[in-house]
Amino acid sequence: MSVEWMLIRGSGIVAFAMLAGSTIWGLLLTTKVLGSWAKAKPVAWFHESLAVGAVLATFVHMFALSIHEYIEFSWGDILIPGRATWRPIAVALGVVAFYGMVLISVSFYFKRFIGQSAWRAIHFGSFGVFLSVLAHGVMSGSDTGEPWTVGLYTGTAVAVVLLLLIRVAQQFAAPAASKRPVRPDRPERPKLEQVPAPEQVDIRGETLTEKVSRLSTGA
Fold this sequence. Notes:
The chain is mainly alpha-helical. It has helices at 3-30, 41-67, 75-79, 88-107, 111-124, 126-140, 147-178, 208-216, and strands at residues 202-203, 206-207. The longest helix is centred in the last third of the chain and has 32 residues, at 147-178.
């Protein structure tokens, strides 16, 4: 195994691991599985850093392919989907995924210019990017059948699917909760006025005590 091929496979695995980590981390943030940690800036920054790192590792992967003498990839084969003759479907998936990774990573720095809705739509495409990279690795990797590779691919895929299902369930639960009838506040019971004592009751301009006293004295 040549040094170039080791660099190709090593950078490819690193790129996949960082992309998978960024996807999983992003889902942990959006599903709020991390609780109050999800609001911490370093946590969000880590998600962003993994995405950028995946792009850099992918570029190293592409550069190593361009200098590899056995397959002889040209930059046209590397940058244009469907141009490569060696495993064209697998390579095309990798090329498309690379452009998706670049778009998603760049969107972190243009969020305030493109708006929240556009930013969320772009990031929703990260699931397609993850699936494309996963298929690219399985179809083109020379070590796909190795136990550690199977564990990496399977473990990350299961984590992404489970977290995505949680996210979808939360999205469906939110509208249902908003449609629940709101019970009106129970009106406050009117306060009963204080019942006056007998001596405070006014009967024809005099209190009850005064009237009894008047009648007993014959006044």
